[in-house]
Amino acid sequence: MFKRIATAAAAALTLFSLAACGAGSPSSAQPGAAGSSASGAAAGGQTQKITVGVIPIVDTAPIWLGKSKGFFAEEGLDLDIQTATGGSAIVPGVQSGSYDFAFSNLISVMVAKDKGLDMRFVADGASSTGDPAKEFGAVLVKGDSPIKTAKDLEGKKVSVNNLSNIGDTTIKSVVEKAGGDPSKVQFVEVAFPDAQAALDKGVVDAAWILDPFRTAGVEAGDRVLSNNFVEFDPKLDIAGYFTSGDTVKNKPELTAKFTRAMNKSLDYAQQHPQEVRDIVGTYTKIDAATRAKMNLPLYRSTFDRASVQKLADAAQKYGTLSKPVNLDELLPR
C-alpha cells in the first residue's frame, strides 16, 4: 500500500525540504477591516496581484482554501500561487523578488537570517496538533525493532528529509530529554516518499515521516517511536508565511492585507477539516482514501512565541544556527 501512495504523492510531497507566527501585528486587525478593504476594492474595481511561493503539501491547504473562498479578493489581492517541488528556491525567490510572500518551516528562515538575509514571518502556517493520537509526523521503527525509546537511537541511523533542519533538531532534543546523547545519532538524508522503503530495507534504523506517509507506514506495520514535534513542545509552530524585511518596512499596507487574508484562511481551515482534505486533492495527487485517513496539522492565526524561542534555542544548541534568534526581528510585531 505504501508503494502505491508514495508513487501517487511523491511529486506533490517534499515537506520542509530546505524552506517548508503574533500579538500586536497586522493579524490583530478587526474582522471588519477585511470587509472594508473588500468594499474599497470592489468599488474601485482594482486589485493588486501578488505572487506567493509554496510547496504543494497538506500544510499549505489554508492558502488554497483562502483563494477559493475569496478571502484574498476581499482584501483587493489577486493571489497567484506558485508551487515549488522543494524548498531550495523558496527563500531565494523572496530575496530576488520573484515571490512577494512564501511558505517555509521556521528553521529554514532562521538559517537564512543567520546568514544575513532579512526575512520576516507575517502569518503562521502549520503547527503541531499537541495530541500524539492525531499528530501528522513521527519517528517510525519497524514493528519488531529492538528500539523502544528515543534514548535507544544512540548509535542508530535515523532518516530526515534534510539535515540541520527542523526534523533532526527536534529529534535531538527528544533523545536528550530521554537521557540519550544526541551527538551519537546518525542522521541520514532521505526524502519522505523514500523513507519507509529505507526503513524496510534496513538502510536506516528509524525514519522521520510526515503524513500521508506516516499513516501508510503505520498501516504497513511500523511502530511510532516518537511524536517528535509533540514531545519537543505540544504548541510547536512548524512553518509560516514570510517575506523580506524590505516588504514589511516599505509595503506595510500590502503586508497587512496579506496577513489578514492569510489569518482568515488559517482559521477557516482549522474549522473545516473536510474542506482541507478536499482541496488537497486539487493540488496534489494524494487520493481520496488516503486524504480521509491522514492526520492534519493544526492551523492557527497566531504564533506561539515560547515554542518558537525554544526551537531557536535548540537549533543554536545543536549547531544549526551560529547565534541567538531575535524573535522581534523574526515574528510579526
From TrEMBL:
Residues 1-19 form the signal peptide. Residues 59-275 form the SsuA/THI5-like domain. It comes from the Bacteria. PROSITE patterns: PROKAR_LIPOPROTEIN. Belongs to the bacterial solute-binding protein SsuA/TauA family. This is ABC transporter substrate-binding protein. PANTHER family: ALIPHATIC SULFONATES-BINDING PROTEIN-RELATED (PTHR30024), TAURINE-BINDING PERIPLASMIC PROTEIN (PTHR30024:SF47). The keyword Cell wall biogenesis/degradation does not apply. Keywords: Signal. It is found in: Periplasm.
